[in-house]
Amino acid sequence: MLRRVLLLCVCAVLLAAVPATAGLFGDKFEDEVVTETSAVKLVREVQQGGYDVVTTEELKGWIDGGRKMIIVDTMPFEASYAKGHIPGAVPFEFPVPLMETWDTTKTAGKSPADYEALLGSDKDMLIVVYCGFVKCTRSHNGAIWAKKLGYTNVVRHPGGIFAWKGKGYPVETAE
Predict the structure, then answer these.
(1) Span 141-156, average pLDDT
(2) What is this structure's pTM?
C-alpha cells in the first residue's frame, strides 16, 4: 500500500513538472499571457486617466466603514444596472470605446453637465467608478471624464460588478 501511494506521488510530481502536460490541465503559460495583457492594459489606462484603483475587498470595506463617496455604475441601465449593482451606486452610462470628446449618443443622451450634477459640487469627493469587469473600459471613460470635470479624488474599481458578485457580496436591483 505504501509503495502504491509513493508511486502515485512520484507520478503526480512528474506530471506537474513536465511542461508538455500543461495542456492536460490548462495551459498556465497561455493563461499568463492573458493575465499580462489585461494587467498592462489596465496600468496604461490608469496612467492615461490619472486616477487610482480600488479592489473589490477594499471597496466593500469603504462601504461597510461608512466612507463618504459616490459610486457610479457605468453599465447600461436596463441590461445591467437594473438587474444588479453595487449597493448605493448611481447609474450613468458610458461607452466601451475610449470617448475623447463627449458624445451624447454614447451616454444615453446625457451631457457633461448631467454627469457633473450627478457627482455634485464637492470636487474633492471620493468618486468610485465601475463597469462589468477588468477588460470593460466604460469605467475608464467614467473616471477620465470625472477627472476632466475637475474631480480630484477619482478611483476606478476595475473588477466591477463581476468581481463584486464573485466575492459573494450583495447587490441591489432597480425597476
Answers:
(1) 98
(2) 0.83
